[in-house]
Design goal:
The complex is a heterodimer of chains A (254) and B (283).
Chain A: H1 2-26, H2 38-50, H3 53-85, H4 87-100, H5 108-116, H6 120-144, H7 148-156, H8 161-198, H9 203-213, H10 217-245, H11 247-250
Helix pairs in contact in A: 2-10, 3-4, 3-6, 3-8, 3-9, 5-6, 6-8, 7-8, 8-9, 8-10, 9-10
Chain B: E1 21-34, E2 37-50, E3 54-58, H1 65-73, E4 80-85, E5 88-89, E6 97-100, H2 104-107, H3 114-119, H4 129-142, H5 158-170, E7 176-180, H6 188-205, E8 208-212, H7 216-222, E9 225-230, E10 235-241, H8 250-253, H9 257-274
Helix pairs in contact in B: 4-5
The chains are: A mainly alpha (254), B alpha/beta (283).
């Protein structure tokens, strides 16, 4: 009840802005052919959901994003653990990652198109590359900062290096790994959509761009609203999972 | 090995019963090289520890007590010499010896519950989960943490965290506990409680304990043998058998004349090395 009360002003602001949007368009305060009203946009959203267009596009987009994201997380955690535990591997790969990391992902897209075409492989790859670096950096950062006493505790109980990695190092680095994964999840959505806009014929990114080109502006807005809602829920689910896995950190008093 | 004539020396290396020692250290050397400069920490320590003994190593700070304990634990490589655990040279941490860290707060796993922490040393041994948890609950009862199974370490006090670390160390049924200043970060009352706990456990389980402390009275209260190291580089300065009968009461023992004499012997060794001098000398 108290938490709901705290949320009230934030919700009221969103509702207020939607009302403002609706009224300014309705009373021709902005150029109405290029901006639909809220009701027109919601109407277009309803129709596109009813005829399956929006959910199909959403499925295509989310499928690629989640596959690319999953590939990135698995590879980045594995390589990050290696970089975090082996000094040699760290000094071997750290300069390369620092060189590649700042390149904006959009710049990879032309190379990816040349190598992989314009299909799913290209888009999944681009998402995976973009998500890889934040997870990698946070993983090796977290692994390197594991307290040596924790590792020695594993040794005195006879745990071998791989068992120590699984049972001590990765759980200890989990907060940092999850931070990287949360950052990467936001990036995945952005890059997935951009890749569809640059090259493709399906997914929500393409739907938004295509409806703009053929002047179906309400549908374009419907796509954007869908992305807002999906992005919100992806983050919501992630934060819930993070709180569950890190419940030991918030457990205090009893 | 500079020794002046006035230093008392009681050697108990050759015990009359002479059972096979659980620890046999031979000419153990440990040195570190920093910026091309070699510094010797341990200078050829030779020492036997008999099974079932409670041996405490004391000495001035920085003398290498903890380093020696870590060598016995197999947590650090030695530069020269050898230490055998039950006749087998130590190269990796030996099964059957568990190290209990001074910094208990950094040694317990914060993401595991109390029960999960104690189960740690039982995993990967082919025991069922029910069996592991059964053993873990017994250890928690032994250290007085029954009822806290599902708490996380962050919900425990420092003394309780060290009890947890002890329960976890005991769970796999070790023959030897290696305890590095386990109570130095605790307040006096909590320390007194844990000293009693460790004494009770040692008597009950009959395991060997090698204990490091800078607290001479703690050493005399707990041990069957106290070894004082001298520093730079470290070797054995004094080796005292402590044969006060059990159960030991710290209140009456603290007034015992033999206790006071031994306390004086050990303290004077440390004071001399730390350069603490009083009129008329430290003896």
């Amino acid at each position: 009840m108290k938490a709901a009360k705290k949320r009230l002003p934030g919700l009221a602001l969103i509702v207020g802005l939607l009302v403002l949007w609706q009224l300014t368009v309705q009373f021709n305060l902005v150029d109405s052919p290029s901006v639909p009203t809220v009701t027109e946009s919601v109407d277009a959203l309803g129709k596109s959901i009813a005829n399956g267009e929006m959910l199909t596009a959403l499925g295509e987009t989310l499928g690629r994003i989640l596959i690319g994201y999953a590939i990135a997380v698995v590879l980045a955690v594995a390589l990050g653990a290696l970089m975090g535990t082996s000094r040699f591997v760290f000094y071997l790969l750290e300069p390369l990652t620092e060189l590649l990391r700042p390149i904006p992902t959009a710049a990879y897209v032309p190379i990816a198109i040349l190598l992989l075409g314009v299909g799913n492989e290209m888009k999944i790859t681009v998402v995976a590359v973009a998500c890889f670096f934040p997870v990698l950096l946070n993983t090796y950062g977290g692994v390197r900062s594991v307290d040596p006493i924790l590792v020695d505790t594993g040794r005195t109980f006879g745990y071998k290096p791989f068992a120590r990695l699984i049972k001590i190092v990765l759980p200890s680095a989990l907060p940092e790994i999850l931070t990287g994964m949360r950052v990467a999840l936001g990036i995945a959505l952005i890059v997935g959509i951009v890749s569809e806009m640059l090259a493709g014929n399906n997914g929500i990114g393409y739907l938004i761009l295509d409806s703009q080109r053929i002047f179906q502006v309400p549908l374009m807005f419907a796509g954007i609203i869908t992305l807002a809602i999906v992005g919100y829920f992806m983050n919501f689910i992630f934060v819930r999972l993070e709180a569950y896995f890190l419940r030991w950190r918030t457990a205090a008093g009893s | 090995m500079s020794m002046t004539e006035s230093q008392p020396r009681e050697r108990t290396l050759e015990s009359p019963r002479a059972p096979a020692p659980i620890i046999a250290a031979r000419s153990v050397v440990k040195s570190f090289t920093t910026r091309g400069k070699e510094s010797v920490i341990l200078d050829g320590i030779t020492l036997d520890i008999n099974e079932g003994d409670f041996v405490t190593i004391v000495g001035p700070s920085g003398c290498g007590k903890t380093t020696f304990l870590q060598l016995i634990a197999g947590l650090q490589p030695m530069t020269a010499g050898s230490i055998a655990f039950d006749g087998v040279d130590i190269v990796v941490p030996p099964a059957g010896a568990v190290y209990v860290f001074q910094q208990y707060g950094k040694s317990v796993f914060p993401w595991r519950t109390v029960l999960g922490n104690v189960c740690f040393g039982l995993e990967g041994k082919g025991l069922s989960k029910a069996k592991r948890e059964g053993i873990a609950r017994d250890q928690l009862a032994l250290v007085g943490l029954a009822g806290f199974e599902h708490h996380y370490p962050s919900q425990l006090s420092g003394g309780m965290q060290q009890r947890l670390a002890i329960a976890r160390a005991l769970a796999p049924g070790p023959r030897m506990l290696l305890m590095d200043e386990p109570f130095s970060a605790l307040d006096a009352l909590t320390r007194a409680k844990l000293q009693k706990l460790v004494l009770d456990i040692w008597q009950k389980l009959g395991i060997t304990v090698v204990f490091v402390t800078h607290d001479i009275e703690e050493a005399l209260l707990l041990s069957t043998r106290v070894i004082a190291l001298h520093k730079s580089p470290a070797n054995i300065d004094i080796d005292l058998a402590i044969d006060f009968p059990h159960p030991r009461n710290p209140l009456t023992l603290g007034e015992d004349s033999e206790f006071l004499a031994k306390r004086r012997t050990l303290l004077s060794s440390i004071y001399r090395q730390e350069g603490i001098e009083y009129d008329g000398g430290v003896m």
